[in-house]
Amino acid sequence: EVQLVQSGAEVKKPGESLKISCKGSGYSFTAYWIAWVRQMPGKGLEWMGMIYPGDSDTRYSPSIQGQVTISADKSISTAYLQWSSLTASDTAMYYCARFSSGYYADYWGQGTLVTVSS
Amino acid sequence: IVMTQSPATLSVSPGDRATLSCRASQSVVSKLAWYQQKPGQAPRLLIFGASTRATGIPARFSGSGSGTEFALTISSLQSEDFAVYYCQQYNSWPRTFGQGTKVEIK
Does residue B4 contact residue B22 with C-beta atoms inside 8 Å? Predict the structure, then answer.
């Protein structure tokens, strides 16, 4: 059974750093792209970027690039989304998703709620 | 590529037919997916390749279109179908979602 299990909810202050994770199981982790999708409170889905763990090829949305870092550790089948300095506007639910051939998301994680507040 | 969905909200009675639209700012050929999201849940893949149902998706869901105009039709709405629906193109980078259509009970 394919599963993507994300790390737990986080409450952070502006300016702090954060790294959230997404662990894949039940399939060959290195053979599928993993994407991060943001959903701000009451809003729609926003594709942030994705990584191919097999060779670490990474693509970012132009609107997100430079604000976050996407990485993966294939030895433990885990992808990451990282911020060096959070702002209140980073408050959102973040989903990881397996993108079949890099095209569409056929499996999703349960989401990680990130709250940034002073 | 900007994906525009209409209407923003669709009010439908159970048992009725619902048609949701998705327009791309440039051709995405047939590289379009549809997702359903219920409150408090992760999205679920419904359709890929514009018209191919994902595994386990009921036949009342159907997708159509190509190029820049697409539609998702739910032939007879069931109570569990009231949700928000998103389209997503995968013809080019970055992948982009529409803003969503909420299907609510009339």
Answer: yes
Give the Cα separation of B84 and B103 in Å (integer).
6
Q: Which of B44, B90, B98 sits opposite A103 (nearest CB)?
A: B90
Cβ proximity of A94 and A111 under 8 Å = yes
H helices then E strands: how many in chain A?
A: 0, 11
HEC states along A45-102? EEEEEEEECCCCEEEECCCCECCEEEEEEHHHCEEEEEECCCCHHHCEEEEEEEEECC
User: Which residues from B are below 8 Å from A when comparing CB atoms?
Assistant: 31, 33, 35, 37, 42-45, 48, 54, 84, 86, 88, 90, 93-100
Residue with tokens 């159907």: B62
Listed in sequence order, the residues at least 6 apart from B58 whose beta carbon sits closer than 8 Å to its beta carbon are none
Interchain CB contact of A34 with B (< 8 Å): no
pLDDT, tens only, B8-50 = 999 999 999 999 999 999 999 999 999 999 999 999 999 999 9
> A2, A7, A9: which is closest to A24 by C-alpha?
A2
Q: What is the pLDDT of residues B88-97, one digit of tens each?
A: 999 999 999 9
Chain-centroid distance of CA B102 in Å reads 10
The mean of the pLDDT values for chain B is 97
Q: What is the sign, positive or negative, of the torsion defined by CA atoms of A115, A25, B32, B39?
A: negative
Residues of A in contact with B98 (CB under 8 A): 44
